[in-house]
Amino acid sequence: AFQVQGDYLEEKEFLGTAGALSLFPEKPEKPFLVMNGDLLTSVNFTNLLEFHESSQRAMTVCVRECRFQVPYGVVTMQGSDLIDIVEKPSQEFFISAGIYVLAPSLLEKIPAGTRFDMPELIQQTAKRGGVGSFPLGCYWLDIGRPEDYLRAQQDYYGEFTDKEP
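User: That's the sequence. What structure does it adopt?
Assistant: Structure tokens below.
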């Protein structure tokens, strides 16, 4: 099936979502993939890596469109005067999907032995114009909450196998 080789790094103390990358015994020679462990996705990693290479950026962040509907009427106020009301508006924005491709040079930006989160690395790299985005149009689910974990168990059979649960 998959020709994947993996090594594990063990944190003695929590170093944050990017800090553990400072534990690499050797710097990779090519861009590498970093992914949150609580995701279920059908992203095509080959396409993602090819996109990253062609962009010539230091980092690529996978993003996902997110829609949130406020369950109430939202008011606009000026002082104590109510100016307008919009009933149950919907907002759309992009979120980080927790999947990243990093150039090996970014490892030098991660402080050793200290807590350092991926948003900090993204912000630092973005200031230098080195971050691209890769919108996901595929299946993606963060399974960090119990209800999403249950949903993932059901979705898995429909999205990733030909079997029924």
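The chain is about 25% helix and 30% strand.
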